[in-house]
User: Fold this.
Amino acid sequence: MIFEISSRANPRLNELLAHRRERFFFEGEKLVADVLARGLTVSQLIFTAAMETRLPPISAAVGEYWRVSRSVMEKISELKTPPEIVVVLPLPVPALDFKGSQVIFGLDSIQDPANLGAVFRCAAAFGISALALAGSCVRANHPKVVRAAQTALIDMPFGVFPDLEDLIARAQSQNVHIYATGSHAAKNNLAIEQIEFPCLVLFGNEGQGLEKKTLRGFPLIRLEQSARMDSLNVAVSACILMHEMKRVHGL
Assistant:
């Protein structure tokens, strides 16, 4: 059955948009095709009449099909140029198995959606088990995160924690090795070759990094860099470390 929605005041439409923060909205033909090719459960597949005759192959279980007007699509889309097709998925229930995961990257209060999206993509590329988003991290379904991460958001398990202390306590309760990251050398520096698993690797936010008590409390992993550089972008640092861990430890 296809629901025909032409009015921007449609109750079904407004109900969906009222719960936007509880959904993933993937926009555009290529991204939607990638999502529909997977054996997922999709809440809504939304398309214009112009798109109906060229829908991509669908392997996903689709709850509802919506044929919408351009005006409605403009209300749904968060792109400057609204696409002809959008797919909506429910957010996964965030639950992480620390001991069952070889390596989790913990991100404390990352603010830039592009940074978080890049970390998701690299984590999916380099064999990271999961991501843990702590504190005031930008939400994983922020539209700019979705555009940057794309289907890595589906591939990469993630959990959300109220603050870094809660994340650390959860990991410690399961006897997981915890490592901090920072740009400056310290007495507790640890070589990548010395990392033990399962582990949680912590990154601070773009402006402040990790707090000093966290840097002092756990072995520190530092990427060797020129003394002229104070620090690297958090997403760049995380992606380099993921690559090195995969190279050294065969993740």
